[in-house]
Design a protein that fits this description.
The protein has helices at about 1-5, 15-25, 45-65, 65-105, 120-135, 135-140, 145-150, 165-180, 180-200, 215, 225-255, 265-285, 290-315, 315-330, 335-340, 345, 360-365, 365-385, 390-425, 435-440, 460, and strands at about 30-35, 40, 465, 470-475. It is mainly α. The chain has a two-stranded antiparallel ribbon. The protein is globular. Pfam families: BCCT (PF02028). Its main location: membrane. Keywords: Cell membrane, Membrane, Transmembrane, Transmembrane helix, Transport.
Length: about 475
């Protein structure tokens, strides 16, 4: 908080800031050079240590797939068993800190008094939202609500007094909104605010090591800072790899209805992965104004258009009711949901024999928080890069509050329609493996499926929207 207090006054002008930044960078270990027309500058220890760890794990996973999967799963379960309290508690505290900072320091400008905002509010929002969310909304849009709806566990986070399908559906939607709401965006916004103050008011370099300057001081300019940056590189590698893999799967599955002969195998997914990587590289190398800004606008507007089409093609009044109800339900149970650690179920001597329910925490909340944290260094640094000249209040509103509500609307629309379709399938007694003859005998339309019978990566493309109010179906 001292940095924020000191930042109220313009202690330095632009020249002082640049001089300090130059000095800080000069104190860090770096290699400069030129290869043809290409100039490069990097920190050898941070770069090579991060690259070594990532490549070592990659080679291990390729050469010994079974053992690597087994060992990684053991590590994941150990983290869930020992560190759930830290994951859940830290995310909760971060949200509280952001709320406190919003009201206490919201007026502070992230930069000097003469600094101007470089990007408009919509451009700023679109870039942070699309960078931070990636393809997760599409992968989980229909899959996560259905997975929770059909979950047979007795996990307290999913089933708060479960007694019927209505409560079950609402709790499932609530958990999805929790995983994609304020607590997720907190790991982007808080480092962004800290980095912005330190970089634009104190002249520190725009790197993750600067976040620990208030704790370690100039020690971050040495080997300690190099290790911090290398850990950030490793986190980014795992976070991006997870999203890129899910994106490649979504691309292949989405193309199969158009090209039925397209096989969903490792080779096809690898080609899709390279295609996604090349497009991402093109967007990044085109710069912020030309590549990232335009691509972000296109992605967000396309997603918004899709959401509107789905909402107006289905029962709009049902979705409006569900939006008000679900957002109210979310805030009603927010504290208990945000602090749930599945502690009693974790005990191996749990009297009801429900210790296996602890797997839910391992596969859901802990996975999501790890996924968000994997992207945190990349997104927070990028958000800092485009936040110069804004106030803390503006950043929190546009990068924390609004994106959370946008996600809520997305899951209410896509998740609500998916659950409604699942309910229709249940009411018509459709089940997994049912042949067409039996379906026809039950009078089930071709568009109606039990989404719980479909693989997670295919649910988004399989759900259809019942539009009985308008007397038609969107196929």
């Amino acid at each position: 908080m001292d940095s924020l207090e000191e930042a109220r006054d313009d202690k330095y002008n632009e020249k002082h800031i640049q001089d300090r930044k130059t000095w800080f960078i000069s104190e860090c270990w770096q290699v400069k050079g030129k290869f043809g027309r290409i100039r490069f500058q990097f920190n050898p220890l941070s770069t090579f240590l991060g690259a070594f760890v990532l490549w070592a794990i990659l080679i291990w996973a390729i050469t010994d797939e079974e053992t690597s999967i087994e060992k990684i799963n053991v590590a994941r379960r150990w983290i869930t068993d020992k560190c759930t309290w830290f994951y859940i508690g830290s995310q909760f505290i971060w949200v509280i800190l952001i709320i406190y900072i919003y009201f206490k320091y919201g007026h502070i400008k992230l930069g000097l008094s003469t600094d101007q905002v470089e990007y408009g509010d919509f451009d700023y929002f679109a870039m942070i939202f699309t960078t931070g969310i990636c393809n997760g909304l599409f992968y989980d849009g229909a899959s996560a609500p259905i997975a929770g709806y059909n979950d047979s566990t007795d996990n307290l986070l999913i089933y708060k007094g479960k007694s019927n399908h209505i409560t079950q559906a609402q709790n499932s939607l609530n958990v999805v909104m929790f995983h994609w709401g304020f607590h997720g965006f907190s790991v982007y916004v808080l480092p962004c605010l800290l980095l912005s103050v330190l970089c634009y008011r104190k002249g520190l370099p725009l790197t993750m090591r600067s976040c620990l300057y208030p704790v370690f001081g100039k020690k971050i300019l040495g080997r300690l800072g190099d290790v911090i940056d290398s850990i950030s590189i490793i986190c980014m590698g795992f976070g991006v790899a997870t999203s890129f893999l899910l994106g490649a799967i979504m691309v292949v599955v989405g193309l199969q209805p158009i090209f039925p002969e397209l096989a969903d195998n490792q080779t096809t997914r690898l080609i899709a992965l390279w295609a996604v990587s090349i497009m991402s590289m093109f967007s990044a190398t085109s710069g912020i104004k030309l590549g990232i800004r335009r691509m972000s606008q296109l992605c967000f507007l396309t997603g918004a258009l899709f959401t509107l089409i789905v909402a107006f093609s289905d029962n709009l009044w049902y979705l409006l009711n569900l939006a008000v109800q679900s957002i109210g339900y979310y805030f009603q149970y927010l504290i208990s949901t945000a602090t749930f650690t599945s502690a009693f179920v974790q005990q191996r001597n749990y009297p009801d024999g429900k210790q296996q329910e602890f797997d839910w925490m391992h596969k859901n909340t802990i996975f999501y928080w790890g996924w968000w944290l994997g992207w945190a260094p990349l997104v927070s640094i990028f958000a800092t890069r485009i936040s110069k000249g804004r106030t803390i209040k503006s950043v929190i509103e546009i990068a924390f509050i609004i994106p959370s509500f946008v996600n809520f609307i997305w899951f209410v629309v896509v998740g609500g329609v998916s659950i409604d379709m699942e309910n229709q399938a249940i009411s018509m007694r459709l089940h997994c493996g049912m042949n067409k003859t039996t379906r026809d005998a039950l009078g089930a339309p071709d568009w109606l499926h039990s989404l719980g019978c479909i693989d997670e990566d295919k649910r988004f493309y399989m759900f259809r929207f019942s539009c009985s109010r308008h007397g038609h179906h969107l196929q």
